Amino acid sequence: MSFYPVNLDIQNRHCLVVGGGAVASRKARTLAACGAIVTVVSLEFTQPLRDLEKSSTVTLVCRPYETADLDGKFLVIGATNNEALNRRINADAEARNMLCNIADVPDICNFILPSIIRRGDLVIAVSTSGKSPAFAKKLRKDLEKNFGDEYARFLALMGAIRTRLLQTAHAPEAHKPLFERLIHGNMLEMIKNDQKKEINRLLLDVLGNGYDYDTLLNLSL
């Protein structure tokens, strides 16, 4: 099977997780971190899930799964060790043309979840199309060594610069060469080494006055 890669906007969308164990906890936490309003249905819950309910948009519902739990939901994730229940969740979701993922059972999913590296707004996804999640995890760990927190700061800075430029008389088509000069001007390495004087010198050279590294970064964060 060939999967279609996509990044979903789930901000303020209602999502369902069925299951109360460690896998359900991870799925609920990731959904909530991306801005979803999450309902978790299960007969019992791990302590991390109970803690998550206190500090996020996660709501725990202590009872067995019901088909009506899918009403009004954008997507559902099944995270139980009950095969019959997982298949029921999938069948219910398919009947509603809903997005459905059943953890570790790609044959009854209409989307699968990649292994993710996240550095601020930088998201790198690694997928083996469900063939070997363990290998995807290894690749993720290998890649993590090459992508540090400087990537998050770099993207925050570039986003702030883009916002400032769009507020000026610059034509959007004029932005591309400016960003290319910043990217190829060793900006990322300067950020990694906290070379603020050099960063501000490059910003001045490329963009002119009014672009200060600390000010832009604070605005973006």
Please describe the topology of this protein.
Layout: E1 14-18, H1 22-33, E2 37-42, H2 47-55, E3 58-62, E4 75-78, H3 83-95, E5 99-102, E6 115-119, E7 122-126, H4 133-144, H5 150-166, H6 175-184, H7 187-192, H8 196-207, H9 213-220
Low-confidence stretches: none
Percent of residues in beta strands? 15-25%
pLDDT average, as an integer? 93
Tell the overall outline.
elongated
Proportion of residues in helical segments: 40-55%
Q: Biggest sheet, open or closed, and with what strands and sense? A: 5 strands, parallel
* Strands, total number: 7
Strand order, biggest sheet? 3-2-1-4-5
What's the CATH C level of the largest domain? Answer: Alpha Beta
Write the element-wise H/E pattern from the N-terminal end onward.
Answer: EHEHEEHEEEHHHHHH
Level-2 CATH architecture of the largest domain: 3-Layer(aba) Sandwich
- What's the CATH topology name of the largest domain? Rossmann fold
* Rg: 22 Å
Subunit arrangement of the protein: single chain
Q: Count of helical segments?
A: 9
For this structure, what is the CATH homologous superfamily of the largest domain?
Answer: NAD(P)-binding Rossmann-like Domain
Tally of structural domains: 3
Distance, first to last CA:
40 Å
Structural class: alpha/beta
